[in-house]
Amino acid sequence: MSMITLYDTTLRDGTQGEDISFQMEDKIRIAHKLDELGIQYIEGGWPGSNPKDVAFFKDIKKEKLTQAKIAAFGSTRRAKVTPAKDNNIMTLVKAEPDAITIFGKSWDFHVHEALRISLEENLELIFDSLEFLKLNAPEVFYDAEHFFDGYMANPEYAIKTLKAAEAAKVDCIILCETNGGRLPFEIASIITEVKKHISTPLGIHTHNDGECAVANSLVAVDLGIVQVQGTINGFGERCGNANLCSIIPALKAKMQQECISDEQMRHLRDISRYVYELANLSPDKHQPYVGNSAFAHKGGVHVSAIQRHAETYEHMRPERVGNCTRVLISDLSGRSNILAKAEEFNINLDSKDPVTLEILDNIKEMENRGYQFEGAEASFELLMKKALGSHRKFFTVLGFRVIDEKRGEDQQPLAEATIMVKVGGKIEHTAAAGNGPVNALDNAIRKALEKFYPTLKEVKLLDYKVRVLPAGQGTASATRVLIESGDKHSRWGTVGVSDNIIDASYQALIDSIDFKLHKSGE
Questions:
Q1: How far apart are CA 311 and CA 333, in angstroms?
Q2: Cα–Cα distance between 189 and 229 in angstroms, integer?
Q3: Do 334 and 364 form a contact (C-beta atoms < 8 A)?
Q4: Domain span holding position 423
Q5: How far is 283 from 274, CA to CA, in rounded Å?
C-alpha cells in the first residue's frame, strides 16, 4: 500500500473559476480546514500577482497548522533576466513558504507563440529558475504546463523540458493537463512513456473540460504518480480542476492508496459544504460522494433493497465521507437524516423520545426555511444546547429599531440603531451609529451589553455574507446571512434567515454574542 501526496490548489487555481472569490480571511479559514482534512500541501496563491496573496503568505505564518505545508506558486524567470534579478522569482523566495511551485512551457507551440524565444532558451529558463529556487527554498515542485498537449505535438521536446527540471534536482515534476481535453487512455500512454526517461517523482494536475479530470488523475496514480493536485469541489478555471472530494475517497476506498486517515475522510462532506458556503455558492446536490443526493433513494424497489442491505444500491458506505443514506419518500428518513447530522456534532439523540422528535421536526423546519449550518458551527452548537436544556440565557432583547437615512443625492446614507436589552433585572436602552444598518445594529448591541459582559469587547466582526435564497420572489425573497466573528483565541460562524435582511443579520449577530458568552463562561 503506497502513500499518495495531496496538493490542494483551491486557494489559487480554484479562485480562477467564474463566480469564485475568497477574501483573505476566507483563505485562512479554508487553509485550517484543509489542514484538518489531512491535505499535505496547500497552495496559497501567487504572491507576485496581487496584494491579497502577499498578505496571505504573511498572515498564514501566524497560524498554527497541524501538518500541512504551504506552497507558493509562480512562473519561471523571464527571458534575458537571471533568477536573482527576476521579480517573480524573488517574490516567491521572500514569501518564505514551505514549498515553491513554478510552471514552465512544455509545448513548443507555446514557446514560439507565447514566450517568443527559442526552444533551447526555454530549457535554460526552466533549469536556471529551478536550480536557483532549490538553493533558496525547502522544497521545489515543477508544473510542466500543457505537458500532454505538448507531448502529442512534439514528444522529444516535451521530454527535454522534463529533463531540464530533473537536472535541477526538483523534488517532484507535475505533468499538467492544462486544457482539460485529453482522455484517460491518452494520459496512460504518455505517462508510461515518460517513466522510461524520467526518474524524478511525478505528479498529476488535470482540468475537467472533457469531464475526465478525476478519471485522468486516478489513471495517473495507477501508473505510479505520487502527487495529485486538485481543488475542493473541483473549483477552477473554465470547467474546473480535478475534484479532490471525488479523488480522495476513490484513492482510499477503491484503490487502497493511503492519502488521509479514515477519520479525516469522514469530514469530507463538511469540508465540501464549508468551502461552498465561504464561496457564497449553493452546494451541488448531485455531486458524487458528498452531495445531498449522492446516497439518496426514491424508487420503491431501491428503498426496499437498501433497508435490508445498503450495498444493493450504494457503491460505498456514505458515512465514510461524512454523508448518509436518505430515503426520500419516507417521513422517518427525514428524522434519520437529522439524527445523523446531530451525531456528526457528537450529540446523542434518542429517536424514540417524543421530546426529541419534536426537536428534530423543529430543526427540519428550520432547514426547509433556508438555514444551513455549514460555516455556522456556533449557531448549530447553540441550537443543540437549547434542545438539550443546557443553554444559559445571558440577556433578552426587548426590541430594536434601525434607521437608514439619505439626506441628499450626493450624500452617503446615515445609519443609526437603538436597542433595549434586559440583563437580569436591569434594562439597558441605548443607540449607536454605523457605516450601514447592520454595522449600526452590531454597535448598538455591543454598547448595550459590554457594561454587563466586558469580554464582548474582544469580539470582532470579521466577515459578513448575504445570500438570496432561490424562492423566485425577487426583492421579496428570503435571505440567509452568514457572519464570521472572532476574538484573540478563535473564530466562529453564525447564521440567520428571514424575509427581512436586517432581521436575518440580527439573528446571526445575537448568536455570535451568545456563543462568545457561553465560550467565555461568563
A1: 18
A2: 20
A3: yes
A4: 396-520
A5: 9
pLDDT at 383: 85
Amino acid 231 reads T
In a domain, 381, yes or no: no
- Which residue in 82, 106, 118, 109 sits closest to 163, CA to CA? 106
Q: Tell me the three cell numbers of residue 465.
A: 455574507
User: What's the pLDDT tens digit per position in 449-504?
Assistant: 999 999 999 998 888 989 888 755 554 578 999 999 988 888 899 999 999 999 99
3-class DSSP assignment, residue 146: coil
Angstrom distance (rounded) from CA 486 to CA 11: 22
CA–CA gap between residue 506 and residue 402 (Å, rounded): 11
Round to whole Å and give the CA distance between 256 and 290.
20
149 Cβ contact list (under 8 Å, min separation 6): 107, 178, 179, 181, 182
CATH of the domain at 240: 3.20.20.70
How many of the other CB atoms lie within 10 Å of CB of 179?
Answer: 15
How many domains does the structure of the chain reveal?
Answer: 3
> Quick one: which of 370, 291, 299, 293 has its CA closest to 329?
299
Q: Which of the listed residues 239, 260, 281 is the one where a domain comes to its end?
A: 260
| 391 within domain boundaries | no
| CA distance to 108, 181, 441, 512, per residue, from 148 (Å) | 12, 10, 56, 50
Question: Per residue in 353-384, pLDDT tens?
Answer: 676 677 777 777 887 888 887 778 889 888 88
**Residue 3 grid cell:** 502513500
The ranges of the chain with pLDDT < 70 are 1-2, 297-313, 326-347, 349-353, 355-356, 471-476, 522
Residue 412 C-alpha cell reads as 452617503
Q: Sort strands 99-105 and 69-75 into parallel, antiparallel or unpaired.
A: parallel
511's CB contacts (< 8 A; 6+ apart) are: 376, 378, 379, 382, 494, 495, 496
